Amino acid sequence: MSDVVDILLVAYVLYKLILFLRGTRAIQLLKGFLIIVGVWVLSTYFELRTLQWLMSQAFTYGVLAILIIFQPELRRALEQLGRGWLFTRTLQTPQETARRMVAEVIKAVTYMAKRRIGALIVISRSTGLEDVVETGTPIGGRVSAELLINLFTPNTPLHDGAVVIQGETILAAGCYLPLSENPYIGKELGTRHRAALGISETTDVLSVVVSEETGRISLAMNGEMWRDVSEETLRAMLEQHLVPPPRPERYGYRLWPWKERRHG
Prior knowledge:
Elements: H1 2-21, H2 26-45, H3 49-69, H4 71-82, H5 94-114, E1 119-123, H6 130-133, E2 137-142, H7 145-152, E3 162-166, E4 169-175, H8 191-202, E5 206-210, E6 217-221, E7 224-226, H9 231-242, H10 257-261
Parallel strand pairs: 1-3
Antiparallel strand pairs: 1-5, 2-4, 3-4, 5-6, 6-7
């Protein structure tokens, strides 16, 4: 039993360290270290004495070089360790991630509606939108109200077209959508509304539209459109269709947070 606990603790610490190193210069150091280890193993296996000696020297003086070059990262790691970083929860559940994304979208469309900034936001669910994304400009940024507002600001390169969101990532902006061919659409609806309705007729996306003329917010889904929706109604509808139901938790807690992440 003690061996199992020991292995689980080591695995958890390594997992936390990888999360900490991800996105920093130290991750490049880790890659270089693994390459040196691989070369040392090969030189030992094939009995390449000179190469083996060089790799041994790299190990000897590499520790000192690491301490000097990555002093800021090591200091930050020790500070976070002192604040209890190692045993704090850093990953959001899929429900929290979806709610955060919805909140950012609501914040953005509310801001743009008050200023009558036209916008068209397509939120992907299960249907792939690769063909739509290819018509626009790749973004690959995390969803935020500030980024969405900036993309739709008039007289900017990407303010025309649609923004495509998948999960908590803005995949692309300035995308072209198929227009609805429904003959019963009101004549007062513009291109944005027809495009939002058109993409919702062929996929399971949710399309949020801000009218440039009236500042009203509309939501298109499953070939239907809800016009002039309030902030509260929009939030409720988005959360209803985008926030996944919580998974049952065994024994009242989650031991491995990355299992939740797979469903994000």
